[in-house]
Amino acid sequence: MKVAVAQIDMRLGDIEAICARVEGQAAIAREQGARLLCVPAPLVSGTLPGMLIDSQNFIHDVLSALQALAARLEALGIVTLIPAVVAQGDTPVFEAFMLKEGRVVPVRTLTALRLEHMGEDPWLPPVFEVDGLRCAITFDFNRDIELVPAGCDALVYFQAGCFSVAREESTAVAAVADGYFRPGIVKRSMYLVCVAPVGGFDDMVYTGGSFVMDDCGRTVAAAPCFEEALLVQDVQRGITLPAIEDHMLPHFDRSEWLWEALRLWLADAAAARGRSRAAIVLSGDLPSSLAAALCVDAFGPRNVLGIVVARSRTFTPEAEARECERLELVRSLATNLHIRLVERTEPDLAELLDRDVPVAALGADSAGMPGTNAVQRARAAFEGLLLSDLAADTRALPVRSLCKTAYAIAADGVTAGCAGAVAPFGDVYLTALEFLARWRNRSGAALPAQLVSLHAVKACQAEIVARAAAFANIDAAFSERIDALLGALEPSELDGVLEAHVDRALSFEDIPLTKTRPDAVALALLLVRQGEAVRRSLPAYPVVSGCSFVERAWPAALAWSDFGRQGAEPLTLEALLKAEVERSESRGAEMGERMRNEVLGFISNLLGISSEELEELGSEEGRARLGSNLPQVEEQIQRSLQQLFEQGGAPGTGGNPRGPHGFSFFSQN
If I label 501, which of 117, 161, 227, 662 is the partner at 20 to 30 A Cα–Cα? Predict the structure, then answer.
């Protein structure tokens, strides 16, 4: 039987357009003999729809459109699987809707009900049959591969997790040559039909690469990465089909996949906002130049507008030379990329700030430019105003060149000009941009050589640290400390601290740099915590790292920051529980010993022996002597008990009054 995979990129939730596209793909697949068509997972509702699935009208529109599509597909004689996230009680789950014989069947929920009635795990992979081919469905390959029922011929894997540079398996076919997917398929001896999405869906992005693997672990068909495709492949058990050798398969390259993922997301983000062009401020640095190249790849050079703002006031010849060099870099970049460049001149910042003193009196930064907090805010606001105005006038998407490093420690300093903008590098650290630039320049030297270097990265980090210091909003001493501690770090060191803290959630002591630069690490973590509220208003970006700020969100009003344990052992809930259990056991042993001593004292009163004699009886020799005199001891105990009941007190107690239970001993126990 032939199986088809429609690797298509549509706007998230465009229900009617999606159904029309699926119908067209089904007609083409049926012409090629396919009997089963599989559609990518995020198309209808995305993978994280939030409150959308609680909208009764949205669910109604989806099901109504699917029913109409099922009626149209019935004439083609092709079964279609369309995944979507639905609500099961209060829990969102992936459902696989099967369009068959004019009906819409929720396969996963229906299977769960049947399994539950049979007393089995209701969320085992659902199984269905088409033309004698027994297929199972999964949305989590690693979890479900061992749970697929015996006797299945093929596993249809709908990729739900988005692309991440930290998870190679998210690249689908590009991960096969490195050993992903194959071991599980060979062990279970079944076909694998991997349905990989392509394109941007909200803040997630997918890179395509659907493929079919036979029961021997050989890739017999593969769709291209980063583009739409219709994959049709015959699936037959017991027949050796031509296979694609591993060296012919796409191989995961971190820079290539990251660049193409960002390009896909940027194009789809613009389309979702009704835009087909981009506008960006060019600062003559690595991030803005690389972002301009990305815009060109996404929209074409005729649809990219660059803005450069010339700084009119320079106070030294060196500063003037640096400013001229910066402007020439921007013009050279625009020429290389063949984009339109709009040049503007910075106004008198003193007038913008309504200051009574000239700008020169406000101080200058290391480049000879005005460097006070107020001046930096005014400059950022002016550039943001120009970007917003140009984008609105030309119906372009405003693009910011902010990277994850800036999001982490300088969120307050990059807020200007963020209304409606996007930041494609918002989940990419600064040091990674150098590698992206080197990869991009292989296809043509778009970026000037001086911008693709460690020196350029250090200059960008210095700018980010300066913004963090300028917008710290605490006091001058704190700003100076930011400059001193973070400015002394290498770019790889600073990004390493942020990656360990943000992406891997390591504690202060577990971050490697803590051993040599504890103050710098603590300050970086403090800035990350302080920027939490502001980050929520920064431009949208695609999630491409192991953990983005969207996933790592902390309370915005949090006052605590991780400064380490100062050498103390970590306190944990498990340790507290263990201590309480040990305390209870110790107290129980203590109570047992106390009760034993009281009982022994009671017996000693009954027998009329002293405590010293009782202790002697506890020895091995005493127990032997007690055994030889056991009849006499028993007779004495009987006489003592009779006396106890007659007098209401133990022998030797002087006839103490009876307790509440009738015995003086038990009144105390």
Answer: 161
